[in-house]
Amino acid sequence: MAEIFDRFPTNIGETLGLIPRQSFSFSYRRFEVWQGGACVYSATSNGVIDAKVLNENLVVTINDSNINQYIKSNFSFGEISTNNERVMWSKDIFNTSDRVEKFNPDISSLFYQNGVLVKVTYTIHDPNILVEFYS
After folding, report:
1. Do 93 and 104 form a contact (C-beta atoms < 8 A)?
2. Cα–Cα distance measured from residue 44 to residue 97, given in angstroms and rounded to the nearest whole number
3. Cβ pair 100, 106 in contact under 8 A
4. Sheet of 24-35, strand order
5. Exposure of 38 by Cβ count < 10 A (0-12 exposed, 13-18 middle, 19+ buried)?
6. Taking burial as the number of CB atoms within 10 A of a residue's CB, which of 36, 37, 85, 91 is the most buried?
7. Do residues 58 and 51 touch, judged by C-beta distance below 8 A?
8. Helix/strand/coil for 12
9. Is residue 85 a contact partner of residue 6, using CB atoms and an 8 Å limit?
């Protein structure tokens, strides 16, 4: 059975109006690393993602040595969008620069159920992986 998440209007890169930018702290119990459509690593953990809005950017810290080999522990995003069941933070949603950095997420998706954040994902283009964190 597919999970049902809260819905949002499609507003990519705030082209249809401003989107509120909110800090969050997300305690997760499990994470998965996906590559080529397959789960390549999965583990339980008591980690925390701390994300603070500073000067309109989202500055993220992941304090969990269990995931360090797949994702940087500190990174930031400057763009925000909403699209169907997610709030997305990104570095370059319209791909104007083609810049990517190893293990540095390019896109984050935040999934909510009844207004509560329940899943956070990070798309990384070098290497091409998706890291998913679950409450």
Report:
1. no
2. 36
3. yes
4. 8-11, 79-84, 86-90, 107-113, 116-125, 128-134, 24-35, 38-54, 57-62, 74-77
5. exposed
6. 91
7. yes
8. helix
9. yes
**Which two tokens mark 113?**
């159920």
What does the DSSP assignment read for 23-78?
A: -EEEEEEEEEEEETTEEEEEEEEEEEEEEEEETTEEEEEE--TTTTTTS-SEEEE-
Global pTM value? 0.93
How far apart, in whole angstroms, are the C-alpha atoms of residue 108 and residue 80? 9
Cβ contact 50:60 at 8 Å: yes
Average pLDDT over residues 55-80: 95
Beta strand pairing call for 8-11 and 116-125: unpaired
Q: Rounded to an integer, what distance in angstroms lies between the CA atom of residue 109 and that of residue 37?
A: 17
pLDDT digits (tens, 9 = 90+) for 78-118: 999 999 999 999 998 887 777 788 999 999 999 999 999 99
Q: Which fold has domain 8-134?
A: PH-domain like (2.30.29)
